[in-house]
Amino acid sequence: MSNGSTGDRSRDMARVENELLARWPESRLEPSLTRINALVDLLGSPHRAMPVIQVAGTNGKTTTARMIDELLRGFGLRVGRFTSPHLESVRERIVLDGEPVGAERFVEVYEDIAPYVQMVDAAGEHPLSFFEVTVGMAYALFADAPVDVAVIEVGMGGTWDATNVADARVAVVTPVALDHSEYLGPDVPTIAGEKAGIIKADAIAVLARQEPGALDALVRRAVEVEAVVAREGTEFGVLERTVAVGGQQVRLQGLGGEYEEVFLPLFGAHQAQNAATALAAVEAFLGAGAATGPIEQETVRAAFASVRSPGRLERVRTSPSVLIDAAHNPAGMAATVAALRESFDFTRLVGVVGAVHGKDVAGMLAALEEVCAELVVTQNSSPRAIPADELGALAVEIFGADRVSVSPRLSEAVTEAIELAEAGPDNALGGSGVLVTGSVVTAGEARTLFARNRP
């Protein structure tokens, strides 16, 4: 590796990214823990060097993991966090002390584990995937740091997800819905059964509110492995919430008692639900409960007030407002639409949508049709991206031809949407807005686009 000029670091980082991207992508799976187990064994079992809080579910995983991280650091713990996918930089996946790992350290860790990766590749039927290598890097970096606790978001599913080589002390499951059905199962209970695989013996399972069939599958697994269960709506939950400037004010029921006057700078009932789930997970990790009372309330308030969730109804422009949201399935889009209606008073909203194959795009578009006056259909850079013309044809079936336009380049699509928002019949500039959504890739590319225009 280079000795550290900015140009050298950039070249090294680009080389590592290219080598990672040459591996199997996250969209190509061969369900097995064989390869990742072989890698962490060769690395000296770094996944067992620290306690783990693991987060599975369909929607809300990344934000919940961010909240858990913020809370734990508020209590003075050193935290490593692994999430996926990333919005703009692969380094976002591996976070230490609240910040993405630097390019130089990212490259160092990659090069440290590369010989062992090659050994696993040579010995197996299939090489390690992009995701498996980044998981190995995260565990290795967190063990070396060292951290007091690792907050690990599952990539997909649970049982055979590469992150699941660890045995989590606290296993968190956010709401389960239909997504990745080709890999996880045809219905919500089956998918929940797959995600339940993160619940291990003697763990504490923190379960967000679920559909009945999903809850049954999760509790059944907890009973089988003799894990303790905490359920939203029973042991913890949202007691009250009101819309506030820049977010919402919430009152939460935790495992140890009530937490009042908590400001959350995020929008929507789903984010309050994520906050309650994150709080219960941290209480469980710290050993709080009915017998001990709440953990320190001012620390909790300060941590939640500091939470940020990029790409989740994130405002990146004003007049007209441009919001970016990474919703990529119907359940996530329904939550986004509900939050828009509750927290934003748009007289005219124009949607920009870029989506990928393998998703229920019609379900997402149907949810958006309720709030978007017009829709600009575009295409992101994912290999699985739905061509703009194909997506446009689907959108016309739901919105009608007079409300849909097609603009394959994202930058041009956003510009067109801003012009459409400004050109509303009432010309109410302050009440017009643009929502860019449909895929994590679309959200990430939109953030990059607007970042270029920031001071």
Automatic annotation (TrEMBL):
GO terms for biological process: folic acid biosynthetic process. It comes from the Bacteria. It catalyses: 7,8-dihydropteroate + L-glutamate + ATP = 7,8-dihydrofolate + ADP + phosphate + H(+); (6S)-5,6,7,8-tetrahydrofolyl-(gamma-L-Glu)(n) + L-glutamate + ATP = (6S)-5,6,7,8-tetrahydrofolyl-(gamma-L-Glu)(n+1) + ADP + phosphate + H(+). GO terms for cellular component: cytoplasm. Residues 311-439 form the Mur ligase C-terminal domain. One of its GO terms (molecular function) is dihydrofolate synthase activity. Pathway: Cofactor biosynthesis; tetrahydrofolate biosynthesis; 7,8-dihydrofolate from 2-amino-4-hydroxy-6-hydroxymethyl-7,8-dihydropteridine diphosphate and 4-aminobenzoate: step 2/2; Cofactor biosynthesis; tetrahydrofolylpolyglutamate biosynthesis. Monomer. This is Dihydrofolate synthase/folylpolyglutamate synthase.
